[in-house]
Amino acid sequence: MEKDLTELVEKLQQAVGASLKLVVLYGSAASGDYQPQHSDLNVLCVLERLGAAELEKLHPAAAWWARKGHPAPLVFTLDELRHSADVFAIELLDIKASHRPLFGEDVLDSLEVPMNLHRQQVERELRTNVIRLRQAFLAGPRDAPALQQLMNASVSTFAALFRHALLALGEQPPESKRAVVNRIAVLLELDPAAFHAVLDVREGRPRSCREDVLATFGSYLVAVTRVAEEMDNRLAEPR
Are 180 and 162 in contact (CB under 8 A)? Predict the structure, then answer.
């Protein structure tokens, strides 16, 4: 991982020179929750200029990174990053909370994110991802491997949204996915067992959900739907 990151930074510097102002690693690899079989190496780059010419220069480095199996870097100018805080409140709060500078001056700590807009995004993203989960269930096979993969693929997103739900409710969320799930379960009085079963499977710990994946999916869907509904009610209340 470190070798790949070092080489990426070198390629980015060679590509755009002094226009490259900042490169950070963010997400699970920066927070200590990295799992090679499930996690990505997420990188954000800040450039002085970012037109078609700069994108063309960056393309070989980004293509090399993609061939390594990593997502293409997020690229912003500094002004774009500052002006995006209102529409990407969840994403930028996550990056601020868990990032590691790889190159340049870290400007993320001073980035301000409007929390009133954060609450709106939490509610919208919870609803959107519940709908996507239902769509994926309807479009895919109902066999155990497919359902397990569906839950594996979505559990990190829901855990992250649960963390932001706690933030929106004025709580300081714990760091681990399991602890976040447990706290939201206590707060909203729901059963976290399906989430723990999915996390166990993702982490290579055999659990009974392998024996009845459809039942686990049903409980999982109930839980995420309940969180979306509760947050809709609670965040709609006057503050």
Answer: yes
The pLDDT value recorded for residue 59 is 97
Prediction pTM value: 0.74
Domain count, the chain: 2
Angle at 23 between CA 20 and CA 28, to 5 degrees: 160
> Looking at the structure, do residues 96 and 140 belong to the same domain, yes or no?
no
The answer to whether residues 227 and 162 touch, using CB atoms and an 8 Å cutoff, is yes
Could you give the 3-state DSSP secondary structure of residue 208? helix
> Looking up tokens 């503050």, which residue turns up?
239
Report whether 91 contacts 22 (CB < 8 A).
no
- pLDDT tens per residue across span 143-178: 888 999 999 999 999 999 999 999 999 999 988 899
Whether 205 maps to a domain, the answer reads yes
Which of 104, 128, 161 is the endpoint of a domain?
A: 104
Fill in the DSSP letter of residue 32.
Answer: T
- Are 23 and 10 within 8 A, CB to CB? no
On whether the CB atoms of residues 83 and 50 are closer than 8 A, the answer is: no
Enumerate the β-bridge partners of residue 46.
Answer: 22, 76
Q: Which amino acid is at 105?
A: E
Q: Do 119 and 223 sit in the same domain of this protein?
A: yes
Within-domain flag for 167: yes
Answer yes or no: is 109 within a domain: no
As a whole number, mean pLDDT of residues 77-87 equals: 89
Residue 48 is predicted with a pLDDT of: 94
Return the amino acid letter for 230: E
